[in-house]
Write a structure and sequence with these properties.
This protein is 47% helix and 13% strand. The chain contains 32 helices and 24 strands. The protein starts with 11 loop residues before the first strand and ends in a 9-residue tail after the last strand.
Length: 791
């Protein structure tokens, strides 16, 4: 495509979209995102906002070349793919170099420390260079090498007046024309010199947070303008929402002891908000017994804190509510929906309450409108809502990532109130990493954290406890006694004999929590028939049972009025609202013991419940806990429980605090220090290796199990989607199906699954309904042993 027939008004960023319109839209939106929350920086925030605007204005400048325009307007698919692969078609690097010169020209007149000028220029360059991909190692990424030859070719084909609407274009264009390897400032030695100048801030992680923030603002602005063409006004949430709900349901007029206790806890936490002196950002803790209403208390605390910030700081923070397990995220989200529905008379729209995890629906509503799937995806994955309910994986993989898709929502974290529920589940190896990052977010980015749990880990030295009389509430708890039978190991067969003999004498609802799926399956098969003969309903729960069936069983357990026995893995420990009179738990870490105790006599029945801790071993004498738990955590649990044969619930708080104190003293911080070093060096490729959930036995494989007629319909739809040739349409269609598809998918350790792996169909392992018994047991789920058949 020659220059002679090429006019400014013909230049487009996307089909039918003038480049100027797109650039101005992204620039203004990136500036809007950057200025939404007040930050505490070593230079005026207005400068960061202008840098974000310039990055947005220049991010697609490289699309102005005739090479890209030819590619954009090409109709023939084969030739289009050929043009796509040419280096001169690529636009990100040229756009990044132009951004570099534009930001440099802007900052020349600004009175800020020279090291911060250098960093902002480089950070904007990196954000634009990588806005279609993932971040890489910063020191390596700021070098151009020999790519100037292609750049010079592209620059020669941009007439001087094409982009004159851009600020500083008069300074940028001559510098582009003069570009050569010798004229380029950035390089390895620049990074070393800059690192020395800014060492104190690097140790406090500010450069990392700023790079992520700029990158995120640009990515989300680009997505908004490309797909939605606009941003939407913020929704309003009543700060007294939970108070109104509690009043409507009579929670503020308790009639039982446990409800009195829940009401006292709620009121004390709400009173504490009046005493909070807002600083740059703060880290709070809410430590209260299991079953004491922490979910509603935490969200109400966040709403009241939000109101206080609106009054005193002039901005409205978003609320991010993160939980560790998918098994409880929808349960808690349903509680929040019910609060909105009772108070407002209708379910909340997505701009008020958004649930985001890898299985959630790709639907987004505002007022009376429902967005199309591609628009909904932008709003959901950008956390465009006042209250976001999500998983630890989503939250922490946004904080510690180099991936474009994960980092796009990073700019929602600054200024937000972040509730981390069941924080005791956060791995000890990352305590130091999280501590340093959260403290930096609080100091510089006005983020507020609330760590909610019955077993508060010692991540922070002195978080502000919002339940100041927590010891009183733990001492008032006398729902259970814990008995420890861990001096001598026993087999599953011995546990079976003990369980049946005890239930023969005293019939009561019973929960048995075991450490491995195989152990749980073995016990279930041993006791199923005799328990049914004794009149019990018996249920089995593990991750080898398809999610849809697991949720159905949990609801059935909750609603059943019959005597019941549940045999489960640890998935019932935290947050699942189940209540039993007798609980048996194979030895695990101290915090897990306390969590499972929260499933015993949860609602304060007249008779104290019993939690028994046992020590199980397999036929080879290996303890089952050794298959899944860190040896240090088990050792610490033994030490804390030494000398105790029985303990009442009110003594648990002291034991747990001692356990976490020892864990902090003796646990290793090696992995945290390794990642903190990468963060300080802006080594994003190493940061990208962060994994919140490490699979101890290697990779897993996904298996779709056609357990019912609905699963069959979903499977047929999935296979039809696989036949769509256009990859973007195929991707969009699957996202619309995702929330129906994954409830029938189990993830199984590949090594074990290989012994009985079903055939691969349409890209995933598939168990058809008419041959289900070969691979899947309706009671216990996937069969890891068996004869493999081919369909």
């Amino acid at each position: 495509m020659g220059n002679a027939s090429y006019h400014f008004e013909d230049i487009e960023s996307h089909p039918g979209v003038p480049l100027q319109v797109h650039l101005e839209g992204v620039g203004n939106t990136a500036a809007q995102f950057s200025g939404e929350v007040p930050l505490n920086l070593p230079f005026p925030q207005e400068i960061l906002t202008e840098v974000a605007r310039l990055a947005g204005l220049y991010h697609d400048l490289g699309k102005a070349t005739p090479f890209f325009q030819e590619y954009l307007h090409e109709k023939d698919p084969e030739r289009k793919e050929l043009l796509r692969g040419r280096k001169e078609t690529h636009h990100s690097l040229l756009s990044a170099v132009a951004t570099y010169f534009a930001v440099q020209s802007y900052l020349e007149a600004q009175f800020i420390p020279e090291e911060w000028k250098e960093f902002l220029i480089a950070a904007a360059f990196i954000a634009v260079k990588r806005h279609h991909g993932n971040l890489e190692s910063f020191p390596d990424d700021v070098r151009l090498g020999l790519e100037t030859e292609v750049l010079n070719l592209q620059i020669d084909h941009i007439p001087e007046d094409y982009l004159s609407f851009l600020p500083y274009w008069g300074e940028v264009y001559p510098q582009l024309k003069a570009l050569s390897p010798d004229s380029w400032r950035l390089g390895k030695f620049w990074f070393v010199r800059w690192s020395r100048k800014i060492k104190a801030y690097r140790e406090k992680l500010l450069p990392y947070l700023l790079q992520n923030f700029l990158f995120s603002c640009l990515l989300d602005a680009d997505k908004h303008i490309t797909v939605l063409q606009e941003t939407f006004p913020r929704a309003r949430v009543n700060p007294n929402l939970v108070d109104c709900y509690r009043s409507l349901l009579g929670f503020d007029r308790p009639a039982t002891f446990i409800n009195h206790l829940r009401d006292d806890i709620y009121k004390e936490v709400m009173d504490h908000i009046q005493e909070v002196h807002l600083q740059n950002g703060q880290i709070f803790s809410l430590t209260a017994p299991t079953g004491s209403g922490k979910t509603l208390t935490a969200i109400s605390f966040a709403l009241r804190l939000r109101e206080k910030m609106e009054t005193q700081k002039g901005y409205s923070p978003r609320i991010i509510y993160a939980l560790p397990f998918l098994s409880i995220i929808d349960q808690n989200a349903d509680v929040f929906r019910e609060v909105f529905k009772k108070v407002q008379g209708k379910s909340p729209t997505s701009d008020l309450l958004l649930v985001h995890h890898h299985l959630s629906d790709v639907t987004y509503t505002r007022q009376e409108d429902e967005h199309e799937p591609d628009e909904a995806e932008i709003l959901i994955e950008g956390w465009d809502s006042e209250i976001v309910v999500t998983t630890f994986v989503q939250f922490f993989h946004t904080l510690f990532s180099n991936r474009n898709r994960a980092m796009r929502k990073f700019h929602r974290i600054p200024g937000s109130v972040i509730i981390l529920d069941e924080i005791q589940s956060f791995p000890h190896e990352y305590w130091l990493l999280f501590q340093k990052t959260a403290e930096a977010l609080a100091e510089y980015f006005n983020s507020y954290f609330l760590l909610s749990t019955a077993t508060q880990p010692a991540i922070f030295e002195s978080p502000i406890e919002v339940l100041t009389n927590k010891e009183k509430y733990f001492k008032n708890m006398d729902r259970v006694k814990l008995r420890f039978q861990i001096q001598r190991a026993q087999t599953i067969s011995q546990l079976k004999d003990y369980l049946l003999a005890r239930l023969q004498k005293e019939s009561q609802d019973t929960l048995i929590v075991l450490n491995t799926i195989s152990c749980a399956e073995k016990l279930y098969k041993m006791v199923k028939a005799p328990l049914r003969e004794m009149g019990f309903e018996i249920f089995f729960l593990s991750s080898h049972v398809v999610p849809k069936e697991r949720l159905r069983r949990i609801e059935q357990i909750k609603n059943s009025k019959e005597l019941k026995v549940v045999i489960s893995t640890q998935l019932v420990e935290a947050g699942v609202d189940l209540d039993f009179k007798w609980v048996i738990r194979d030895l695990g870490p101290m915090d897990s013991i306390n969590q499972v105790a929260g499933r015993c006599n949860r609602n304060f029945g007249k008779k104290r419940g019993l939690v028994e801790l046992v020590l199980l071993e397999d036929e080879n004498g290996r303890k089952f806990y050794s298959y899944i738990y860190d040896g240090l955590l088990i050792s610490l649990t033994h030490e804390v429980l030494e000398g105790w044969k029985e303990v009442s619930e009110d003594a648990l708080l002291g034991l747990i605090e001692e356990y976490f104190r020892r864990a902090k003293e003796r646990g290793t911080d090696d992995r945290s220090r390794e990642l903190l070093g990468a963060i300080q060096d802006l080594d994003y490729e190493q940061i990208g290796g962060f994994r919140l959930i490490e699979e101890p036995y290697g990779a897993k494989v996904d298996i779709f199990v056609e357990v019912d007629e609905e699963a069959h319909k979903v499977w047929e739809e999935f296979c039809a989607i696989r036949d769509i040739t256009n990859r973007w349409k195929r991707r969009t269609a699957f996202k619309a199906l995702r929330s129906k598809f994954y409830p029938y998918v189990i993830s199984v350790q590949a090594e074990k699954a290989l012994k009985n792996l079903p055939p691969e169909v349409c890209g995933i392992f598939y168990v058809p309904y008419n041959q289900m018994e070969r691979w899947y047991d309706k009671d216990t789920g996937f069969k890891k042993d068996g004869e493999t058949m081919v369909i």
